[in-house]
Structure prediction request, 447 residues.
Amino acid sequence: MISRIDLRGDALPEGPALRDLLPRADFDVSAALEKVRPICEAVHHRGDAALIDFAEKFDGVTLKQVRVPAEALAKALEELDPAVRAALEESIRRARLVHREQRRTNHTTQVVPGGSVTEKWVPVERVGLYAPGGRSVYPSSVVMNVVPAQEAGVGSIALASPPQAPAFENDPAGGLPHPTILAACALLGVDEVYAAGGATAVAMFAYGTESCPPANMVTGPGNIWVAAAKRYFTGRIGIDAEAGPTEIAVLADATADPVHVAADLISQAEHDPLAAAVLVTDSTELADAVEKELEPQVAATRHVDDRIVPALSGRQSAIVLVDGVEEGLRVVDAYGAEHLEIQTADAAAVADRVKNAGAIFIGPWAPVSLGDYAAGSNHVLPTGGCACHSSGLSVQSFLRGIHIVDYTKDALAEVAHHVVTLAEAEDLPAHGAAVKARFGWKVPESK
Prediction:
């Protein structure tokens, strides 16, 4: 069901050469980019009419309007299963605890007497958040997007999620996002919600339409069409990341429980046939036990043939054998997993040495599923190895740092000759002249 890659015996290569030995899904955003271009431009030129047409083409629904009525949000919350509501409320509470601590405060540095630089943190004015709704429904993604935006102080928050096809004739929920998505929005106080999916939702936020003002930034996970649309609009809007298929890597030794490891690999495989599940271990006994454990656990769950088996048997998943935990650390750092579990002896110390991961889960009692819903951490994380340069979604994602420079005449005079010297060294005499003009065109002598 899952392949093996044996990296024992020989010295591990460095950098890209090691990354090339590791499993990864095929995810060609560049090819998808050309397909989303006409969709995005149709939304640009035709607005809501294009969104309605694409909803019928891609989602099989006929929309009367794109924005979700307020009464539909209230109804969804009223009819939400009480157990699901309680779970969402606890997820929101824990996420707020963690994200509130991420708030940045303004800081002033006194560079010289009379000269200071203040870094001021300002939230993005308006954001468009995306919650997927294809193979699965993700109210948890509503929480993970909305909470950090709210804690950052974003003043205008809108959310889009694909419209759902009617379950039966005259289904009142047909054409709306999934009711659990709507209920999560209502719980969070988000009342601007749109029935739009994939590239059309990103285009709606980027360009704006008759019903939806344009946003400054778009965040949230999605499929390859969402990733391609984000790339298309990079520069026009801010984005969090071009999210690819989900990933889990588990670094484990002989102390790990194969039942836990197998369950955790399956938990990510059930997302998508392109989902990646990677075990890195120095124990052939553990590898054998995990492989044996996969079969009964897969057989006992759902989404087997359409997601889990293709994911586990795909080129993006493997058991990687290494000589020891040291070599395993090098492998997981080269892989840069979205989710990395450490199930080794002294797991906390091993985790402390990891350089590249979207989120790290320590020991047997911190599975990725906990982070997906209720750890308090954020589950919108970098994929495809991007953890080597990018972070997960946070309050910081929605803030901009602005430097405020405040110098007196004396403070400028003290450094004026350096400014003029550097300007002339760069052959930019007007830069120096802007300083000279303030002192009667004569540079003050340094004190």
Remarks:
- The first helix runs from residue 15 to 19.
- The chain has a mean pLDDT of 96.
- Residues 262 and 296 are 10 Å apart (CA to CA).
